[in-house]
Amino acid sequence: MNLSNNFNLTELLRSQTATRKRFDEQFDPGPQIIENLRALCSNILQPLREHLDLPLFISSGFRCARLNRAVGGAQKSQHLFGQAADLEAVVGITNRDIFEAIKTSELPFDQLIWEFGNEEEPSWVHVSFSERNRRQVIVVS
After folding, report:
1. Whole-model pTM above 0.70?
2. Nearest to 17 by CA among 74, 77, 80, 60
3. pLDDT band at residue 33 using 50, 70 and 90 as cut-offs
């Protein structure tokens, strides 16, 4: 199922941990989760993809509760509601470039998080979209 021109439901549900541990509920989200993922794609991921003109790798999108616990996610993570994605650079760009592109854009994000890494490069970039869209920028090291 396509969520936008360049993103589909499968890539926003993908999880090696869920597959390995047989968390079947990960791959059968309800309609509200799908709508939240569609809003995330339409408002953040697709415009970012078009701006960068490069593919983005979604390392984590929606997480069922068991998966979120298994990966050590925050108890109230927006991933649980299909409102967040963790992004990693693929080719021709760095994770820092992704972070800076979102930070300096007019995209209506809720949270933008520089996740771990070092002062030069995050290990991945977390971005979320919700009804709040506070444009919070956070660095986690």
Report:
1. yes
2. 60
3. very high
